[in-house]
Amino acid sequence: MKKILCFAIVALMFTIATVSFAYELDGGSFPSGNIPYVINSSASSYSSEINNAADMWSDNTNVNLWDASDFTGPHPYWTDVVADEYGYVGWDGSSSMSPGWGQTYNIGTIELNETYISDYGFARIKLVTCHEFGHILGLDHVDSYTMMYGNDVWDAWLENTDLLHSPDQDDIDGVNSIY
Ligand SMILES: [Zn+2]
């Protein structure tokens, strides 16, 4: 009886581990993991949160997201970060890719919705931005409490407070599988 119970617990743990280590890719990527981002003047008041969010990926994965806001040279691809009052549209951050999801990207755009984030503190704006950077790196949503949690990264953070300091190992593995 005891042996059977132990086996059941081990089997259950293995199942949980398998689920929590899943990541989803959208199939696209930048030509390399050396990716500049430009903070538009509309988002300059969130520069600290944006830079912190980018550093979380650069410090923990193979990619180098670097602030090119003052960079004057040409670069074949980059990501813009903009902010505006988009209204109560159901999202606080969004991302889009040119020429399209699942392709080789030349321009990514992250939009921060000030209608929501003007009420957020530093931590939440950082988490929203980090989630959107995850998309432009090629990650899709997952159901587990990682940076790429599909509903709201704030809800993921409530269950997984380490997300304030680093993407989850699942997120990291996903990015490192691409770059
Ligand atoms: Zn998302």
Strand order of the largest sheet: 3-2-4-6-5
Profile the largest sheet: 5 strands, mixed
Strand proportion: 15-25%
Q: Which term fits the overall shape?
A: globular
User: On the 0-100 scale, what is the average pLDDT?
Assistant: 91
Fraction of residues in helices? 25-40%
What does this molecule look like?
This protein has 179 residues and is of the alpha/beta class. It has one domain (24-178): Collagenase (Catalytic Domain), CATH 3.40.390. Helix content is 39%, strand content 19%. It is built from six helices and seven strands; from the N terminus they run H-E-E-H-E-E-E-E-H-H-E-H-H. It has helices at 2-20, 47-60, 114-117, 122-136, 153-159, 169-178; strands at residues 24-25, 34-39, 64-67, 78-84, 93-98, 107-113, 139-140. The strands form two sheets. Strands 3-2-4-6-5 form a five-stranded mixed beta sheet. Strands 1-7 form a two-stranded antiparallel ribbon. Helix 2 links the parallel strand 2 (34-39) and strand 3 (64-67). Helix 2 crosses helix 4 (122-136). The longest helix has 19 residues, at 2-20. Zinc ion binds next to helix 4. Zinc ion is lined by residues 131, 135, 141.
